[in-house]
Amino acid sequence: MTVKLVSSGSPFEKTAGYSRAVVKGDWCFVSGTTGYDYATMTMPETVEEQARNCLRTIEGALREAGFSLSDIVRNHYYVTDASFADRVFPIFGEVFGEIRPAATMVVCDLIRPEMLIEIEVTAFRGS
């Protein structure tokens, strides 16, 4: 079984030694993704904008790996404040409302103070 490594072009991937996504067989594992806009290397100020950036980056990685958002079976959300849940749930509902993957949200610190949310997903495209 071959392994395919996917990069989003983030400089953090090489520095920290990870791939944006790893494909093995029918599975795609997307690394924790923060809200950076990798085209400008800027971080939006709001959790809503960061969540949308996370999802765009994840969707791009999935597409490059040969998957789509509809293949997602598991989401992990990490937020730095519990009050963010009510602000990002509608965004997740727009994207995942019909897909309905298993999901967990954890309140925690992230590695940079400007990071308000991080999202990690697992996708499966088998039968």
Structure description:
This protein is of the alpha+beta class. The protein contains three helices and six strands, in the order E-H-E-E-H-E-H-E-E. Strands 1-2-3-6-4-5 form a six-stranded mixed sheet, with helices on one face. Strand 4, helix 3 and strand 5 form a beta-alpha-beta unit. Helix 2 runs parallel beside helix 3. The longest helix has 19 residues. The radius of gyration is 14 Å and the shape is globular.
What key attributes describe this structure?
single chain, about 130 residues, alpha+beta, 6-stranded mixed sheet, 3 helices, 6 strands
Using only CA atoms, what is the Rg? 14 Å
Question: Which strand-content bin applies to the residues?
Answer: 25-35%
What's the end-to-end separation, in Å? 17 Å
What share of the residues lie within helices? 25-40%
How confident overall, as mean pLDDT?
A: 94
Tell me the total number of β-strands: 6
- The ordered string of helix (H) and strand (E) elements is EHEEHEHEE
Tally of individual helices: 3
Please list the strands of the largest sheet in the order they lie side by side: 1-2-3-6-4-5
- Shape summary: globular
Give the class from helix and strand content and strand pairing.
Answer: alpha+beta
Largest sheet: 6 strands, mixed
Q: What low-confidence regions span 5 or more consecutive residues with pLDDT below 50?
A: none
